[in-house]
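Run log // design_07
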């Protein structure tokens, strides 16, 4: 497949001949009652331009791109496509023009296979043709995808690959990407960047939403920054530092979190000893002789490529899956490998899973009801089988206040919050209990610089109060910033833990791929 496979030569000529700008947003305004989500936003992009859209969660980014993709209708303003005003009544209209979008939250059918999910978006192709093109594109991009695997068996990173490949197969003229690298490793992200640069060179415009400012500076030539629904700056991100860009996004300077070294003589709060577990599903990962401990006051990190056993390890630690023997997992000295999640919470443990909407929080339940989900086993919120409504509402309000959760008035449903604000809520729900142990999977996935700062500061503060914290993350910057010790998970096995200062970024990447540096031991090639 040639680098320009998604854009035929005639289409490239069309891109460049009709207008200097392939798309212009003029005075886009969206009002929801008293809430002004977008306030007279102007944005223009040329063919081949890679343009970043930046801002905190709640700044108006999602609203703006949903208007551009035909998901919602603007209150005022117009969209100009190749010099002509257009009205986009649905994503079908947007796709007909050549606008494609990869959403941050997956839109996949769980019970269908990878190939079937791709075929749904390409009704004009036969299924054998879809399979053939899927396999070819996956090879070219370096995205390992099994066409016959059911989506419900896949990790978040693997699901993200489906979304990206499915969109690219539609041959977009404008590609909108919402946090595309949030669950990719640095190596996978670099592969994606090369692909995007090739698409850009072929004339495809790319609107890139990310909270990873260094990758924005690496990839994008221009950026529009939103704050409170308004454009506050349009700039070349390569000419500004990540700190300067973050300050424009949040309105204040973002400080770097620096942790203290964990004290070597602290008692272990979590002890995992020779944990072996068979996969629960056909495509799941087995866990093999997992052994590590997390001490009081320590932040322990686990890095790894998506699909290498992180969900299985989290389920074993949280009690969603039981270990083969009680002493495989100890919390605060007590063997609890065969105890359920409520028993572990009563040992003063808290758990935050990777998928915030649907796993950590029930979408159609209110915030007070979601607060109850992890507090009912340890707090007097239920009496005689009845929920104490005022107490749960007060708990939700306390979490909202303590963790700067920006939510609609009253007691809204979880699905009404932005991703970053819901993440602050579910992490705050655990931290507010002051647990002795907190296990967090992907703590800042898809959240902005301001929300990430609040979450990371809360984790550091909890550790300094003596709690043991385990962070599972694919964000190496996050792990190198937060952790005291670090290990890598690969094929369901864990490397020995080492102090953060003993790791280099390159060594972590090699360990994630299953390769050991020559001279340290024999080279083990990734399968």
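design_07 sequence
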């Amino acid at each position: 497949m040639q680098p320009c496979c998604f854009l035929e030569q005639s289409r490239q000529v069309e891109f460049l001949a009709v207008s200097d700008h392939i798309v212009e947003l003029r005075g886009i305004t969206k009002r929801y009652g008293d809430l002004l989500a977008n306030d007279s936003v102007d944005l223009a992009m040329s063919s081949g331009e890679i343009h970043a859209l930046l801002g905190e969660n709640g700044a108006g980014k999602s609203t703006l791109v949903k208007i551009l993709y035909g998901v919602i209708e603007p209150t005022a303003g117009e969209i100009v496509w190749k010099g002509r005003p257009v009205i986009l009544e649905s994503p079908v209209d947007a796709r007909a023009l050549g606008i494609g979008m990869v959403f941050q939250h997956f839109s996949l059918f769980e019970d269908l296979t990878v190939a079937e999910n791709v075929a749904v978006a390409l009704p004009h192709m036969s299924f054998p043709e879809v399979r053939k093109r899927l396999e070819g594109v996956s090879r070219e991009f370096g995205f390992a995808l099994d066409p016959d695997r059911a989506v419900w068996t896949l990790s978040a990173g693997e699901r993200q690959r489906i979304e990206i490949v499915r969109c690219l197969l539609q041959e977009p003229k404008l590609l909108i990407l919402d946090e595309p690298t949030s669950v990719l490793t640095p190596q996978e992200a670099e592969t994606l960047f090369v692909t995007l640069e090739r698409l850009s060179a072929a004339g495809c415009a790319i609107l890139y939403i990310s909270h990873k400012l260094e990758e924005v500076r690496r990839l994008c030539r221009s950026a529009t920054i939103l704050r409170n629904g308004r454009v506050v700056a349009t700039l070349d991100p390569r000419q500004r530092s990540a700190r300067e860009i973050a300050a424009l996004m949040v309105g204040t300077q973002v400080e770097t979190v620096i942790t203290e070294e964990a004290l070597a003589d602290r008692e272990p709060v979590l002890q995992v000893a020779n944990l072996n577990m068979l996969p629960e599903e056909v495509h799941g990962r087995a866990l093999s002789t997992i052994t590590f401990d997390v001490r009081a006051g320590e932040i322990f990190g686990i890095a790894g490529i998506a699909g290498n056993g992180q969900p299985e390890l989290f389920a074993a630690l949280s009690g969603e899956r039981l270990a083969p023997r009680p002493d495989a997992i100890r919390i605060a000295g007590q063997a609890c490998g065969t105890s359920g999640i409520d028993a572990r919470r009563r040992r003063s443990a808290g758990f935050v899973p990777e998928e915030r909407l649907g796993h950590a929080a029930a979408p159609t339940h209110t915030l007070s009801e979601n607060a109850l989900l992890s507090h009912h086993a340890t707090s007097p919120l239920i009496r005689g089988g009845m929920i104490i409504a005022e107490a749960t509402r007060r708990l939700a309000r306390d979490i909202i206040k303590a963790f700067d959760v920006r939510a609609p008035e009253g007691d809204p449903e979880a699905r009404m919050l932005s991703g970053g604000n819901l993440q602050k809520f579910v992490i705050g729900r655990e931290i507010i209990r002051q647990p002795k142990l907190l296990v967090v999977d992907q703590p800042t996935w898809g959240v902005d610089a301001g929300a990430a700062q609040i979450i990371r500061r809360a984790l550091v503060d909890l550790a300094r109060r003596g709690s043991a914290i385990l962070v599972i993350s694919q964000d190496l910057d996050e792990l190198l910033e937060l952790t005291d010790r670090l290990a890598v998970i690969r094929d369901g096995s864990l490397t020995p833990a080492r102090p953060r200062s003993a790791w280099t970024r390159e060594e972590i990447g090699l360990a994630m791929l299953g390769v050991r540096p020559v001279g340290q031991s024999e080279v083990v090639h990734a399968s």
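Residues 516 and 523 are 5 Å apart (CA to CA).
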